[in-house]
Amino acid sequence: MSGRIESERGPLLDSRAVFAGKSGGVSWPVVELPAPEVPGPGECETFAVPKEFVPISTSTEIGPVGSARPCAGGAEAELVAWVRLTEDDLPPDALRFVFLVDALAPSCSAVLSTLAPVPTVEITVRPAAGLAAASSPWLLLRATTRQADPSGWSSEWVDTWGRDGTHLGSAQQLRVVRGG
Question: Number of folded domains in the chain?
């Protein structure tokens, strides 16, 4: 399935979705990343994203884990945080998962010292089998920049777990830092 959004200036968004059925009776071994050991969402302070910079952030609650924050000039391009939608307490379904897996600031922003737009150019989201059994609205996200170059392009990997430590899925993003 695919779709495109255009304006008078040209294409704004191209999307493609690929869906696959069950594996036809073949059972493959499951390989999952263990969840990092972190405090629960109730033990983390809330991080308010400026709505002027990211208007949709008013729909989410973010509880960072550890000291890494966007634009803090840190040593490591990684952000770890609990996230949830604020409108209700429903666990994530596939659509909520796709939205929430991209809720954190770009992990490369943890090493930046100034605020700069870092749009997603491409994102691939892969829900895991554990998503169907998720029972909490909270997701633990660990976003890590795996590679970045001097021109601003970066590759990011996001892993996601439920409160019980079940792996819920992953995402890969291609991002680019724009002038600040």
Answer: 1
pTM of the model: 0.86
Residue 32 lies in a domain: no
Q: Which of 62-66, 115-119, 143-147 has the lowest mean pLDDT?
A: 115-119
Q: Which amino acid is at 177?
A: V
Task: List the CATH number of the domain containing 147.
Answer: 2.40.160.210
158 within some domain: yes
* Residue ranges making up the domain that contains 165: 41-176
Q: Average pLDDT of 74-91?
A: 96
Mean pLDDT of the chain: 91
Predicted confidence at residue 12, as pLDDT, reads 77
